[in-house]
Amino acid sequence: MTQVQLAKEAGVTRQTIAFIEKGEFAPSVTLALKIARALDMPITELFWLEEDVV
Amino acid sequence: MIWKKLTHIQSPVWHMVIYGLLLSTAYTTAYPVEDWLYWLIRAALAAAIGLYVWAVRRHKVHHPHSAITLATLLPIELKEEDEGMQRFTYRAVRRVYTLYAIAVPAGLLLMILFIPPLWLVLLGIGVLLYIHLGIYLVSIWPVLGEE
Fold it and tell me: DSSP secondary structure string, B3-59?
């Protein structure tokens, strides 16, 4: 899925998706859930806390 | 594309041009200038306002869910399309508002102390607006570059 397609599914601009991918922007819970739904993945597979990275 | 970045409806360039022409109109009302210059500035102001109204209407067509209205007191740059863009805009305008919070009282104090001529007041406002433009563009440019 491209950034443009994901942006459309989640109802945001492509720039916002790009910033989330780069880690420059932490989305709201609502947007995170929409992205997870669009990608058909559990939210914990997409977003995690820095300190949880081993 | 630079043109697209600068004509982004939330860009302060619109305000810069219109405020600059308003300042020029005030100057040419207060001080005598050539007739052609007097009318050229007024024609440019009318054209700039006309273009701005057109751009706002165009934005409404492309973004009906976050339409910008002309009759609002909310600064236009706060009407971004989504939360990602809002975050960068808020960061940019916070710096601009900090500038005004310092510059406006400082400017008023200087005016009380020195009672400057009108041309100097207009020049001061112009310089302040261009600093505003600089701060905003430096903050928002990387975001617009993602177009």
Answer: HHHHH-TT-THHHHHHHHHHHHHHHHHHS---HHHHHHHHHHHHHHHHHHHHHHHHH
Q: What is the pLDDT of residues B105-127, one digit of tens each?
A: 998 898 889 888 888 888 888 88
Distance CA A1, CA A8 (A): 11
pLDDT tens by residue, B31-46: 888 999 999 999 999 9
Q: Are B59 and B76 in contact (CB under 8 A)?
A: no
Q: What is the pTM of this model?
A: 0.63
Nearest-neighbour CA in chain A from B111: distance (Å): 43
Q: Residue A17's CB: how many other CB atoms inside 10 A? A: 27
Interface of B with A in 78-97 (CB under 8 A): 81-85, 87-88
CA distance B113 to B108: 9
Average pLDDT, stretch B55-82? 74
Q: In this prediction, does ipTM exceed 0.85?
A: no
Cβ distance of B146 and A12 shorter than 8 Å: no
Q: Which of A15, A17, A34 to mutate to test the interface with B (most CBs of B within 10 A)?
A: A15
Q: How far apart, in whole angstroms, are the C-alpha atoms of residue B60 and residue B66? A: 7
